[in-house]
Amino acid sequence: MLSTLARVSRPALQRCTSTVACQTVKFCRRPEKIPHLPSARLTLVQLRGHQTLGSASLPVASHSVRHARALDEERLVEVEWEDGGQSLYPFTWLRDNCQCSLCTLQSAQARKLLMSDLDIHTGINIVEVTNDSKLSIVWPDQHTSVFDPEWLKKRCFSLEARQAVQEELFLNERYYWDSKLRIPTANYQDILHDDKAALAWLVALRRVGIVYLKGAPAEQGHVARLAQRIGYLRLTFYGHTWQVVDKYMANNVAYTSGNLSLHTDYPALHFAPGVQFLHCISQAKEGGDSEVVDGFHTAEELRREDPEAFRTLASLLVDFTDTGADYCDFMLQSKKRIIDINDQGQVVRINYNNATRDSVLDLPLHQVQPFYRALKAYVNITKRPENVVTYKMEAGDMVTFDNWRLLHGRKSYVSNPERVRHLEGAYLDWDEVMSRLRVLRSSVN
Questions:
Q1: What span, in angstroms and rounded, lies between the C-alpha atoms of 333 and 319?
Q2: Predicted model pTM
Q3: How many whole angstroms separate alpha carbon 155 and alpha carbon 166?
Q4: b/e 93-120 (16+ beta carbons within 10 angstroms → b)
Q5: How far apart are CA 7 and CA 364, in angstroms?
Q6: DSSP code string of 286-298
Q7: What is the mean pLDDT of residues 240-268?
Q8: Rounded to 5 degrees, what are φ and ψ at 290?
Q9: From start to end of 169-232, where are the E strands?
Q10: 258: pLDDT confidence band, cut at 50, 70 and 90?
């Protein structure tokens, strides 16, 4: 299925992205064509009413060193490339990253050279380009370092090069969306057995924040099987996996048949799970529709419409709690900002669950009302119909989404003993997901 879809190029997903050079995220409301993504050439295509995934490999660039010289006063090595560009590398960094077997354990790609043995004021005796276009350096202690041009070019210290490699490593660029999103969809079995399909899934999960999977058997155990495609599940106080059903004396509001307001999972943990899987085993006869909102998109709307409220939610620490017994008994406490931003001011995480927001509020009196005003403003934006995507899972369907970004909820449903609404859920962390994405990208490309 995916191999044929890779030839189709009719993307219908609206795009809103911050480029690697931008300091803030830009917001777009009109649908735009998605360009080729830099890491997996992911293509999102509309087919029979679904947004479906396809992928293709990237061409590999080749670099050669034309000339190199030491700039002793600046303590930099200047490298001229055959394509006409130049790069500068500090003496200390080059010595610290010598790739010889004495300094680097190649089988683990790990540094053996100790910081205590590194001369951070080292000079250079000889710099030359070898016949096979590698950079060779002889240091004052006669140690020799040889650097491959591809390795060296990737680690150029220019702003553009650094931004490009960070984007390659972390896929920080996002595609923002509102209610017009057609959720990217893929086949569960394809992802299990096809590396290109799995790579396209993970890239879309990172870029868009949600991917819908069809074709899983309507029985327990398949969130765990999908997790094995990545690495391993995140164990929490609710177990490796958990069953979302209407329970007597429920230890979580999710285990009731009532309405679930938009939220992120587990802000009561200091390190909340990054990715969530939900698999529909059986659906209620009436109600139970799912809702999702792009938390980054709505945070940017808040920043634009109410900068003071945005600053409040991005600065004040709020208390969250979760108490009960499941996998084992637990009494959780954490402190989180509702909106986490990085040092460039970009939104990187949403932490909000009204059910587990603690009555303890560790704020001075004069900040209490501004906090409530700011939180109310943000929640009102997330509830706007133009921001909410609604869908109803059927037996066998699975949704995978970014728990640091998406707010998700559920409409109330009618509980019926003859047709019990049953979802199985599981968590993973972004470290494991991104690790598998990089491994797949390397093997596919």
A1: 7
A2: 0.86
A3: 10
A4: ebbbbbeeeebbeeeeeeeebeeeeeee
A5: 58
A6: SB--EEEEEHHHH
A7: 87
A8: -95, 150
A9: 184-187, 210-214
A10: confident
